[in-house]
Amino acid sequence: MSDNCLFCKIVSGTVATQRIYEDDGVLAFPDIAPQAPVHVLVIPKRHIASLDALSEADRDEMGHLLERTAHVARLLGVHEAGYRTIINTHSHGGQMVFHLHCHILGGKPIGAMVSR
Ligand code: AMP
Ligand code: ZN
What we know:
By secondary structure, this protein is an alpha+beta fold.
């Protein structure tokens, strides 16, 4: 856990959320400002600041995050119609929260490339 990290506080329960899915490694919860009818964030429980902070040692954990993201999309019922996954990295990528997270956006056609 990283001090003053919002998503670490969500993992620990200090900041409340709807825990859509969790296991030992990941947590999925609704985005507080949804950009689509379905907008969920899937995060590693361990504090990782961004995609840019990853190293080879994180491969298994990130494989788990991606596979569980697909699982959460199936739980949400957006898997057949489809959905978009986004990971924003650093300033030009539009990253606002520096705890790695994968957006799931769906429930309507998301359209061409969008920032979020
Ligand atoms: P990003 O721009 O990729 O860093 O996205 C951060 C996302 O976190 C944004 O879509 C915010 O709406 C979302 N967010 C910020 N605070 C919270 C919160 N307390 N609970 C859920 N989502 C949040
Ligand atoms: Zn964190």
